[in-house]
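Lab meeting tomorrow. Please check the following:
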Amino acid sequence: MSRPLGVGIIGAGVISQTYLENLGSFPDVSVVAVGDLLPERAQAKAAEHGVPAWGTPEDVLGNPDVDLVVNLTIPQVHVAVSRAAVAAGKHVWTEKPIGLDRDATRALLAQADAAGVRIGSAPDTLLGPGFQSAKRAIQAGVIGEPLFVQTAFQTQGPDLWHPEPAFLFAHGAGPLLDMGPYYFSALVSLLGPIAGVDARGSRPRLERTIRTGPRAGETFPVEVPSTVQVLTSFAGGQHGTHLLSFDSALERHGIVEIHGSEGTMVLPDPNQFDGRIAYVRPLGVLRDGMKTEQEWIEIEREGAVVGRGLGVLDMARAIAADRPHVATGELGYHVLDVMLSAQDSAASGRYFEIESTVAPVPLLPDGFDPFARTLG
């Protein structure tokens, strides 16, 4: 590739703002088209960000300057839009989750493989300096052999602040499918594939009330468990416990702890691109009267902090260099398989083995600078 990668965005909703801002700052990609079912919305975004072309999704797919489509549509049509992009000969970056069922998502990956194009899937927070630096430290052995993990995301629920929260409590969402991709993608990136899950879920309220915005006071149904607790068994022998809840009075987000044979590490919120990384060593011998306070050793983070769109940039450079990109469709599918298996386990009370797997997730190349020009 002797020029910046041409990017077309399909879906001009709220999240497109972040993508357009970040992609516009990377010299190695160029946003050339924006499309939406409401073309006037695409036109407004294109005008705001200096994008030369706008129109319908079909206009983006038919644009010869588009090499890669960024799929920012609603989860229910992620696979359909991605398949249309592959059929048009485009690479695809899709927002999470990559799909909502196994068969359709496998078919998408097979189609892309046959067409010789790539699929990338959010979240790309695992490409941020927080998790990249933590992964390097773990690989360097600062906490010894990883043994088990703990994660937690707990909140009163998005109905506390979202003016249209019903979709977050509908089939295909809930805390498991809405927030799970961040936590499970990060853990699979650090520790490798998950081999099995056992989960329990609850739905304490069958209806909830919108608390803010023009529809405040209206009720809506809760279709899926609003609290899910998951036990994971990793193929590498580790195991983990994970809480995902929209029912907690205690607001606590982004808890990720890796416990190893020589120490415990706390990692950044997997929904963020940066954050604190620190670890403690074992206490050693504890005698009567000794204090149990442990010294936290901070780990310096390396790399520039950007945001959503970093995975698109990594794909552009990986395509040019003919190397694997980090946040692959296969990783997205494995995480989807884990979450759907946890959903099935919560519904049935049974343990589920995970049929899919994924190759080791690579680190970004050393010295990866989002703001450098390496193409064209």
Summary: Residues 126-298 form a domain with the Dihydrodipicolinate Reductase; domain 2 fold (CATH 3.30.360.10). The longest strand covers residues 146-154.
